[in-house]
Amino acid sequence: MASPEHRATAAAILPLVGGAANISSVAHCMTRLRLELRDRSLVRDEELRALPAVLGVVEDDTYQIVLGPGRVARVAPEFQALLTATGPATGAVTALALAERGAAIKAARRTRNATPGKLLLRRVANVFVPLIPALIGCGIIAGLNGLLINLGWLPGITPALTALAGGFMALIAVFVGYLTAKEFGGTPILGGAVAAVIVYPGVANIEMFGRQLSPGQGGVLGALGAAMLAVYVEKGCRRFVPAALDVLLTPTLTVLIAGLVTLFGLMFLAGTVSAAIGEAAGALLSGGGAIAGFVLGGLFLPLVMLGLHQALIPIHATLIEQQGFTVLLPILAMAGAGQVGAAMAVYARLPHHPGLRATIRSALPAGLLGVGEPLIYGVSLPLGRPFITACVGGAFGGGFIGFFHMIGDTVGSTAIGPSGWALFPLLRGSHGLGTTVAVYAGGLLTGYVAGFCATYWFGLRNPPEPAPSSTPAKD
Question: What keywords does the record list, in alphabetical order (predicted)?
Protein backbone atom coordinates (compact mmCIF):
# COMPACT_ATOMS: atom_id res chain seq x y z
CA MET A 1 0.00 0.00 0.00
CA ALA A 2 1.36 3.41 -0.97
CA SER A 3 2.29 5.78 1.84
CA PRO A 4 0.79 9.31 1.70
CA GLU A 5 4.12 10.65 2.94
CA HIS A 6 6.09 9.13 0.06
CA ARG A 7 3.45 10.15 -2.47
CA ALA A 8 3.62 13.72 -1.12
CA THR A 9 7.43 13.70 -1.40
CA ALA A 10 7.24 12.60 -5.03
CA ALA A 11 4.60 15.22 -5.77
CA ALA A 12 6.75 17.94 -4.17
CA ILE A 13 9.86 16.94 -6.15
CA LEU A 14 8.25 16.70 -9.60
CA PRO A 15 7.52 20.42 -10.25
CA LEU A 16 10.92 21.42 -8.86
CA VAL A 17 12.75 19.34 -11.49
CA GLY A 18 10.82 20.86 -14.39
CA GLY A 19 7.71 18.67 -14.41
CA ALA A 20 6.97 15.46 -16.26
CA ALA A 21 7.96 16.92 -19.64
CA ASN A 22 11.52 17.44 -18.37
CA ILE A 23 12.06 13.82 -17.26
CA SER A 24 13.26 11.28 -19.80
CA SER A 25 13.96 8.39 -17.38
CA VAL A 26 13.78 7.51 -13.68
CA ALA A 27 15.87 5.03 -11.69
CA HIS A 28 17.11 4.69 -8.14
CA CYS A 29 20.00 3.13 -6.25
CA MET A 30 20.39 2.49 -2.54
CA THR A 31 20.06 6.16 -1.52
CA ARG A 32 19.43 8.30 -4.62
CA LEU A 33 16.61 9.04 -7.05
CA ARG A 34 18.36 9.28 -10.43
CA LEU A 35 16.72 11.41 -13.12
CA GLU A 36 17.61 11.90 -16.77
CA LEU A 37 16.70 15.53 -17.43
CA ARG A 38 15.99 17.11 -20.80
CA ASP A 39 16.78 20.64 -19.61
CA ARG A 40 18.90 21.10 -16.48
CA SER A 41 18.10 24.83 -16.33
CA LEU A 42 14.47 24.09 -15.39
CA VAL A 43 15.49 22.61 -12.04
CA ARG A 44 14.91 24.83 -8.96
CA ASP A 45 17.83 23.64 -6.87
CA GLU A 46 17.38 25.77 -3.76
CA GLU A 47 13.71 24.86 -3.36
CA LEU A 48 14.52 21.20 -3.99
CA ARG A 49 17.25 21.14 -1.37
CA ALA A 50 14.89 22.81 1.11
CA LEU A 51 12.41 19.93 1.02
CA PRO A 52 12.54 18.05 4.36
CA ALA A 53 12.88 14.65 2.67
CA VAL A 54 15.76 15.72 0.42
CA LEU A 55 19.19 15.15 1.99
CA GLY A 56 21.23 16.53 -0.89
CA VAL A 57 21.71 16.70 -4.64
CA VAL A 58 24.51 15.23 -6.78
CA GLU A 59 25.15 15.89 -10.47
CA ASP A 60 26.83 13.22 -12.57
CA ASP A 61 25.60 11.51 -15.71
CA THR A 62 22.16 11.83 -14.10
CA TYR A 63 20.61 14.33 -11.72
CA GLN A 64 20.65 12.51 -8.38
CA ILE A 65 18.43 13.45 -5.44
CA VAL A 66 19.65 11.92 -2.17
CA LEU A 67 16.66 10.64 -0.16
CA GLY A 68 18.33 7.96 1.96
CA PRO A 69 18.02 4.15 2.14
CA GLY A 70 14.52 2.76 2.42
CA ARG A 71 12.83 6.05 1.55
CA VAL A 72 14.16 6.22 -2.01
CA ALA A 73 12.81 2.73 -2.82
CA ARG A 74 9.34 3.92 -1.79
CA VAL A 75 9.41 7.38 -3.32
CA ALA A 76 10.69 6.20 -6.74
CA PRO A 77 7.55 4.16 -7.65
CA GLU A 78 5.34 7.05 -6.57
CA PHE A 79 7.40 9.43 -8.70
CA GLN A 80 7.14 7.06 -11.68
CA ALA A 81 3.39 6.77 -11.14
CA LEU A 82 3.07 10.55 -11.22
CA LEU A 83 4.96 10.67 -14.51
CA THR A 84 2.69 8.01 -15.98
CA ALA A 85 -0.45 9.76 -14.77
CA THR A 86 0.71 13.16 -15.95
CA GLY A 87 1.68 11.90 -19.41
CA PRO A 88 3.60 13.89 -22.02
CA ALA A 89 3.16 17.64 -21.99
CA THR A 90 1.08 19.27 -24.69
CA GLY A 91 2.90 20.99 -27.47
CA ALA A 92 5.20 18.70 -29.37
CA VAL A 93 7.35 21.55 -30.60
CA THR A 94 8.07 22.75 -27.06
CA ALA A 95 8.90 19.23 -25.89
CA LEU A 96 11.25 18.72 -28.84
CA ALA A 97 12.96 22.03 -28.20
CA LEU A 98 13.43 21.12 -24.53
CA ALA A 99 14.85 17.73 -25.48
CA GLU A 100 17.33 19.26 -27.92
CA ARG A 101 18.43 21.94 -25.47
CA GLY A 102 18.74 19.43 -22.65
CA ALA A 103 20.80 17.09 -24.83
CA ALA A 104 23.18 19.94 -25.69
CA ILE A 105 23.60 20.90 -22.03
CA LYS A 106 24.16 17.26 -21.04
CA ALA A 107 26.73 16.75 -23.80
CA ALA A 108 28.62 19.89 -22.75
CA ARG A 109 28.66 18.82 -19.11
CA ARG A 110 29.90 15.34 -19.97
CA THR A 111 32.64 16.77 -22.16
CA ARG A 112 33.77 19.05 -19.34
CA ASN A 113 33.62 16.61 -16.43
CA ALA A 114 33.95 13.07 -17.78
CA THR A 115 37.60 12.22 -18.34
CA PRO A 116 38.49 8.93 -20.07
CA GLY A 117 40.11 7.63 -16.91
CA LYS A 118 37.03 8.23 -14.77
CA LEU A 119 34.73 6.75 -17.38
CA LEU A 120 36.87 3.60 -17.54
CA LEU A 121 36.93 3.29 -13.75
CA ARG A 122 33.17 3.68 -13.66
CA ARG A 123 32.68 0.94 -16.25
CA VAL A 124 35.05 -1.39 -14.41
CA ALA A 125 33.14 -0.69 -11.20
CA ASN A 126 29.89 -1.52 -13.02
CA VAL A 127 31.33 -4.99 -13.66
CA PHE A 128 31.89 -5.71 -9.98
CA VAL A 129 28.91 -3.97 -8.35
CA PRO A 130 26.41 -6.72 -9.38
CA LEU A 131 28.68 -9.25 -7.66
CA ILE A 132 28.44 -7.55 -4.26
CA PRO A 133 25.22 -9.29 -3.03
CA ALA A 134 26.75 -12.71 -3.70
CA LEU A 135 30.03 -11.67 -2.07
CA ILE A 136 28.15 -10.50 1.02
CA GLY A 137 25.96 -13.59 1.26
CA CYS A 138 28.81 -16.05 0.73
CA GLY A 139 31.06 -14.03 3.03
CA ILE A 140 28.59 -14.19 5.91
CA ILE A 141 28.09 -17.94 5.35
CA ALA A 142 31.88 -18.41 5.37
CA GLY A 143 32.16 -16.49 8.63
CA LEU A 144 29.36 -18.50 10.23
CA ASN A 145 30.94 -21.72 9.01
CA GLY A 146 34.32 -20.76 10.45
CA LEU A 147 32.69 -20.04 13.81
CA LEU A 148 30.93 -23.41 13.82
CA ILE A 149 34.16 -25.22 12.93
CA ASN A 150 36.10 -23.44 15.69
CA LEU A 151 33.42 -24.29 18.24
CA GLY A 152 33.09 -27.87 17.02
CA TRP A 153 29.36 -27.47 16.49
CA LEU A 154 27.22 -29.14 13.78
CA PRO A 155 30.05 -31.10 12.10
CA GLY A 156 27.54 -32.65 9.71
CA ILE A 157 26.48 -29.30 8.25
CA THR A 158 29.82 -27.47 7.99
CA PRO A 159 30.93 -29.25 4.77
CA ALA A 160 27.70 -28.07 3.12
CA LEU A 161 28.31 -24.51 4.30
CA THR A 162 31.86 -24.71 2.97
CA ALA A 163 30.50 -25.66 -0.44
CA LEU A 164 27.92 -22.86 -0.37
CA ALA A 165 30.48 -20.24 0.63
CA GLY A 166 33.24 -21.44 -1.70
CA GLY A 167 31.32 -22.32 -4.83
CA PHE A 168 30.80 -18.74 -5.94
CA MET A 169 34.38 -17.72 -5.28
CA ALA A 170 35.65 -20.74 -7.22
CA LEU A 171 33.76 -19.53 -10.31
CA ILE A 172 33.89 -15.77 -9.81
CA ALA A 173 36.10 -15.39 -12.89
CA VAL A 174 33.23 -16.66 -15.07
CA PHE A 175 30.83 -14.08 -13.62
CA VAL A 176 33.39 -11.31 -14.07
CA GLY A 177 33.88 -12.32 -17.70
CA TYR A 178 30.14 -12.39 -18.36
CA LEU A 179 29.53 -8.96 -16.79
CA THR A 180 32.60 -7.42 -18.45
CA ALA A 181 31.41 -8.41 -21.93
CA LYS A 182 27.95 -7.11 -21.10
CA GLU A 183 29.29 -3.76 -19.86
CA PHE A 184 31.65 -3.20 -22.79
CA GLY A 185 29.19 -4.09 -25.52
CA GLY A 186 30.03 -7.69 -26.35
CA THR A 187 28.07 -10.92 -26.10
CA PRO A 188 28.01 -11.72 -22.35
CA ILE A 189 28.12 -15.49 -22.72
CA LEU A 190 31.24 -15.28 -24.90
CA GLY A 191 32.97 -13.17 -22.25
CA GLY A 192 32.05 -15.80 -19.66
CA ALA A 193 33.24 -18.62 -21.92
CA VAL A 194 36.67 -17.06 -22.44
CA ALA A 195 37.06 -16.21 -18.74
CA ALA A 196 36.04 -19.76 -17.78
CA VAL A 197 39.34 -21.08 -19.11
CA ILE A 198 41.06 -19.37 -16.16
CA VAL A 199 39.38 -21.66 -13.62
CA TYR A 200 39.31 -24.80 -15.77
CA PRO A 201 41.34 -27.54 -14.01
CA GLY A 202 42.84 -28.71 -17.34
CA VAL A 203 45.03 -25.61 -17.62
CA ALA A 204 47.43 -27.36 -15.24
CA ASN A 205 48.63 -29.35 -18.26
CA ILE A 206 49.68 -26.22 -20.17
CA GLU A 207 53.26 -24.99 -19.99
CA MET A 208 54.57 -21.66 -21.24
CA PHE A 209 57.88 -19.86 -20.67
CA GLY A 210 59.08 -22.90 -18.75
CA ARG A 211 56.27 -22.59 -16.20
CA GLN A 212 53.04 -24.47 -15.78
CA LEU A 213 49.72 -22.72 -15.45
CA SER A 214 47.57 -23.33 -12.41
CA PRO A 215 43.76 -23.13 -12.29
CA GLY A 216 42.65 -19.69 -11.15
CA GLN A 217 45.94 -18.01 -12.03
CA GLY A 218 45.27 -14.34 -12.76
CA GLY A 219 41.94 -14.42 -10.95
CA VAL A 220 39.43 -11.63 -11.46
CA LEU A 221 41.98 -9.37 -13.13
CA GLY A 222 42.73 -12.04 -15.72
CA ALA A 223 39.00 -12.58 -16.27
CA LEU A 224 38.48 -8.85 -16.72
CA GLY A 225 41.27 -8.63 -19.29
CA ALA A 226 40.20 -11.82 -21.10
CA ALA A 227 36.62 -10.66 -21.49
CA MET A 228 37.64 -7.18 -22.66
CA LEU A 229 39.86 -8.84 -25.28
CA ALA A 230 36.95 -11.08 -26.29
CA VAL A 231 34.77 -7.99 -26.83
CA TYR A 232 37.48 -6.43 -29.01
CA VAL A 233 37.86 -9.62 -31.09
CA GLU A 234 34.10 -10.07 -31.43
CA LYS A 235 33.57 -6.52 -32.64
CA GLY A 236 36.41 -6.95 -35.14
CA CYS A 237 34.83 -10.13 -36.45
CA ARG A 238 31.48 -8.42 -36.88
CA ARG A 239 33.13 -5.93 -39.22
CA PHE A 240 34.92 -8.43 -41.45
CA VAL A 241 33.06 -11.77 -41.31
CA PRO A 242 30.33 -12.16 -43.98
CA ALA A 243 26.81 -12.06 -42.55
CA ALA A 244 26.06 -15.58 -43.78
CA LEU A 245 28.97 -16.99 -41.77
CA ASP A 246 28.70 -14.70 -38.74
CA VAL A 247 26.78 -17.13 -36.54
CA LEU A 248 29.50 -19.78 -37.03
CA LEU A 249 32.76 -17.87 -37.35
CA THR A 250 32.35 -14.95 -34.94
CA PRO A 251 31.85 -16.92 -31.70
CA THR A 252 34.44 -19.50 -32.77
CA LEU A 253 37.12 -16.92 -33.56
CA THR A 254 36.26 -14.92 -30.44
CA VAL A 255 36.73 -17.86 -28.08
CA LEU A 256 39.73 -19.20 -29.99
CA ILE A 257 41.75 -15.98 -30.32
CA ALA A 258 40.87 -14.44 -26.96
CA GLY A 259 41.22 -17.81 -25.24
CA LEU A 260 44.69 -18.53 -26.61
CA VAL A 261 45.94 -15.06 -25.74
CA THR A 262 44.52 -15.53 -22.25
CA LEU A 263 46.23 -18.90 -21.79
CA PHE A 264 49.61 -17.92 -23.19
CA GLY A 265 49.80 -14.35 -22.00
CA LEU A 266 47.10 -12.79 -19.84
CA MET A 267 47.06 -15.49 -17.17
CA PHE A 268 50.79 -15.07 -16.55
CA LEU A 269 50.59 -11.28 -16.60
CA ALA A 270 47.46 -11.02 -14.46
CA GLY A 271 48.83 -13.62 -12.05
CA THR A 272 51.95 -11.53 -11.55
CA VAL A 273 49.90 -8.36 -11.01
CA SER A 274 47.52 -10.10 -8.61
CA ALA A 275 50.39 -11.46 -6.54
CA ALA A 276 51.97 -8.00 -6.47
CA ILE A 277 48.70 -6.47 -5.21
CA GLY A 278 48.49 -8.94 -2.35
CA GLU A 279 52.13 -8.44 -1.38
CA ALA A 280 51.86 -4.65 -1.66
CA ALA A 281 48.77 -4.48 0.56
CA GLY A 282 50.43 -6.61 3.23
CA ALA A 283 53.72 -4.73 3.03
CA LEU A 284 51.98 -1.34 3.16
CA LEU A 285 50.21 -2.07 6.42
CA SER A 286 52.94 -4.21 7.97
CA GLY A 287 55.59 -1.59 7.29
CA GLY A 288 53.53 1.60 7.42
CA GLY A 289 51.23 0.55 10.23
CA ALA A 290 49.45 3.47 11.85
CA ILE A 291 50.80 5.98 9.31
CA ALA A 292 49.52 3.99 6.33
CA GLY A 293 46.17 3.46 8.03
CA PHE A 294 45.98 7.16 8.89
CA VAL A 295 46.55 8.19 5.27
CA LEU A 296 44.15 5.60 3.81
CA GLY A 297 41.38 6.36 6.29
CA GLY A 298 41.76 10.10 5.84
CA LEU A 299 41.79 10.13 2.05
CA PHE A 300 38.86 7.82 1.35
CA LEU A 301 36.07 10.43 1.52
CA PRO A 302 37.86 12.73 -0.98
CA LEU A 303 38.42 9.72 -3.24
CA VAL A 304 34.67 9.06 -3.13
CA MET A 305 33.98 12.69 -4.06
CA LEU A 306 36.31 12.41 -7.06
CA GLY A 307 34.98 9.01 -8.13
CA LEU A 308 38.44 7.47 -7.79
CA HIS A 309 37.36 4.95 -5.14
CA GLN A 310 36.01 2.81 -7.97
CA ALA A 311 39.58 1.80 -8.80
CA LEU A 312 39.72 -0.06 -5.47
CA ILE A 313 36.89 -2.49 -6.27
CA PRO A 314 39.00 -4.87 -8.40
CA ILE A 315 41.76 -4.66 -5.78
CA HIS A 316 39.34 -5.69 -3.02
CA ALA A 317 38.04 -8.53 -5.18
CA THR A 318 41.59 -9.71 -5.91
CA LEU A 319 42.54 -9.73 -2.22
CA ILE A 320 39.37 -11.63 -1.30
CA GLU A 321 40.07 -14.19 -4.02
CA GLN A 322 43.71 -14.60 -2.94
CA GLN A 323 43.57 -14.37 0.84
CA GLY A 324 39.91 -14.87 1.68
CA PHE A 325 39.50 -11.26 2.85
CA THR A 326 40.54 -7.71 2.02
CA VAL A 327 42.59 -5.88 4.64
CA LEU A 328 41.90 -2.51 3.02
CA LEU A 329 38.13 -2.31 3.50
CA PRO A 330 38.05 -2.15 7.34
CA ILE A 331 40.53 0.74 7.22
CA LEU A 332 38.62 2.60 4.51
CA ALA A 333 35.40 2.01 6.47
CA MET A 334 36.78 4.30 9.15
CA ALA A 335 35.95 7.26 6.87
CA GLY A 336 32.29 6.52 7.60
CA ALA A 337 33.03 6.49 11.35
CA GLY A 338 34.59 9.95 11.09
CA GLN A 339 31.50 11.09 9.17
CA VAL A 340 29.19 9.82 11.93
CA GLY A 341 31.25 11.54 14.61
CA ALA A 342 31.22 14.80 12.67
CA ALA A 343 27.43 14.64 12.27
CA MET A 344 26.99 14.06 16.00
CA ALA A 345 29.11 17.12 16.72
CA VAL A 346 27.05 19.26 14.34
CA TYR A 347 23.91 18.03 16.07
CA ALA A 348 25.32 18.96 19.48
CA ARG A 349 26.66 22.37 18.40
CA LEU A 350 23.56 23.61 16.54
CA PRO A 351 20.58 23.14 18.87
CA HIS A 352 18.62 25.96 17.16
CA HIS A 353 18.69 24.43 13.68
CA PRO A 354 15.72 22.00 13.73
CA GLY A 355 15.84 21.28 10.00
CA LEU A 356 19.50 20.30 10.03
CA ARG A 357 19.08 18.28 13.21
CA ALA A 358 16.11 16.44 11.69
CA THR A 359 18.29 15.58 8.68
CA ILE A 360 20.99 14.20 10.98
CA ARG A 361 18.49 12.15 12.98
CA SER A 362 17.09 10.56 9.83
CA ALA A 363 20.50 9.92 8.22
CA LEU A 364 22.45 8.77 11.28
CA PRO A 365 21.12 5.17 11.43
CA ALA A 366 22.17 4.64 7.82
CA GLY A 367 25.56 6.20 8.60
CA LEU A 368 26.11 3.79 11.47
CA LEU A 369 25.44 0.92 9.05
CA GLY A 370 27.98 2.27 6.58
CA VAL A 371 25.73 4.19 4.15
CA GLY A 372 27.38 7.59 4.32
CA GLU A 373 25.85 9.45 1.38
CA PRO A 374 22.91 10.98 3.32
CA LEU A 375 25.28 12.45 5.90
CA ILE A 376 27.82 13.56 3.28
CA TYR A 377 25.37 15.33 0.97
CA GLY A 378 22.90 16.40 3.62
CA VAL A 379 25.28 17.61 6.34
CA SER A 380 29.06 17.73 5.99
CA LEU A 381 29.57 18.83 2.38
CA PRO A 382 26.99 21.65 2.49
CA LEU A 383 28.60 22.95 5.70
CA GLY A 384 32.13 22.63 4.25
CA ARG A 385 34.49 22.43 7.19
CA PRO A 386 32.80 19.38 8.81
CA PHE A 387 33.68 17.38 5.70
CA ILE A 388 37.36 18.01 6.44
CA THR A 389 37.00 17.17 10.12
CA ALA A 390 35.14 13.98 9.16
CA CYS A 391 38.24 13.02 7.16
CA VAL A 392 40.30 13.65 10.30
CA GLY A 393 38.10 11.21 12.21
CA GLY A 394 38.50 8.62 9.46
CA ALA A 395 42.27 9.09 9.54
CA PHE A 396 42.51 8.38 13.27
CA GLY A 397 40.25 5.32 12.96
CA GLY A 398 42.35 4.03 10.08
CA GLY A 399 45.53 4.67 12.03
CA PHE A 400 44.16 2.62 14.93
CA ILE A 401 43.52 -0.44 12.75
CA GLY A 402 46.80 0.06 10.85
CA PHE A 403 48.73 0.01 14.12
CA PHE A 404 47.24 -3.33 15.15
CA HIS A 405 47.95 -4.75 11.70
CA MET A 406 51.59 -3.78 12.15
CA ILE A 407 51.82 -5.69 15.44
CA GLY A 408 50.18 -8.78 13.91
CA ASP A 409 46.46 -8.39 14.57
CA THR A 410 45.20 -8.32 10.98
CA VAL A 411 41.58 -7.31 10.37
CA GLY A 412 39.93 -8.03 7.03
CA SER A 413 36.53 -8.29 5.38
CA THR A 414 35.35 -11.35 3.44
CA ALA A 415 33.19 -9.18 1.13
CA ILE A 416 32.99 -5.67 -0.28
CA GLY A 417 30.03 -3.33 0.03
CA PRO A 418 29.05 -3.00 3.70
CA SER A 419 30.94 -0.96 6.26
CA GLY A 420 30.17 0.51 9.68
CA TRP A 421 28.33 -1.88 11.97
CA ALA A 422 27.17 -3.91 8.96
CA LEU A 423 30.76 -5.12 8.49
CA PHE A 424 30.89 -7.07 11.78
CA PRO A 425 29.42 -10.33 10.34
CA LEU A 426 32.02 -10.24 7.54
CA LEU A 427 35.15 -9.75 9.64
CA ARG A 428 38.03 -12.19 9.52
CA GLY A 429 41.57 -11.78 10.80
CA SER A 430 44.83 -13.42 11.69
CA HIS A 431 43.73 -14.21 15.25
CA GLY A 432 40.49 -15.25 16.90
CA LEU A 433 37.15 -13.66 16.08
CA GLY A 434 37.06 -11.89 19.45
CA THR A 435 40.36 -10.08 18.78
CA THR A 436 39.33 -9.17 15.23
CA VAL A 437 35.99 -7.76 16.35
CA ALA A 438 37.64 -5.86 19.22
CA VAL A 439 40.18 -4.19 16.93
CA TYR A 440 37.55 -3.17 14.38
CA ALA A 441 35.22 -1.89 17.12
CA GLY A 442 38.12 0.08 18.58
CA GLY A 443 38.74 1.65 15.19
CA LEU A 444 35.08 2.65 14.88
CA LEU A 445 35.09 4.17 18.35
CA THR A 446 38.30 6.06 17.58
CA GLY A 447 36.79 7.40 14.36
CA TYR A 448 33.60 8.49 16.12
CA VAL A 449 35.45 10.28 18.90
CA ALA A 450 38.07 11.92 16.66
CA GLY A 451 35.43 13.05 14.13
CA PHE A 452 33.27 14.44 16.93
CA CYS A 453 36.07 16.30 18.69
CA ALA A 454 37.60 17.73 15.51
CA THR A 455 34.19 18.96 14.32
CA TYR A 456 33.01 20.23 17.69
CA TRP A 457 36.12 22.34 18.28
CA PHE A 458 37.26 23.23 14.76
CA GLY A 459 34.51 22.40 12.29
CA LEU A 460 31.90 25.07 13.03
CA ARG A 461 33.63 28.38 13.53
CA ASN A 462 31.00 30.16 11.44
CA PRO A 463 27.78 28.17 11.92
CA PRO A 464 24.91 28.92 9.54
CA GLU A 465 22.00 31.07 10.61
CA PRO A 466 18.96 29.05 11.66
CA ALA A 467 16.10 29.01 9.17
CA PRO A 468 13.26 31.40 10.09
CA SER A 469 10.17 29.73 11.48
CA SER A 470 6.77 31.06 12.42
CA THR A 471 6.29 28.42 15.15
CA PRO A 472 8.60 27.43 18.00
CA ALA A 473 10.92 24.62 16.98
CA LYS A 474 10.45 21.32 18.75
CA ASP A 475 13.39 18.99 18.95
Answer: Cell membrane, Kinase, Membrane, Phosphotransferase system, Sugar transport, Transferase, Transmembrane, Transmembrane helix, Transport
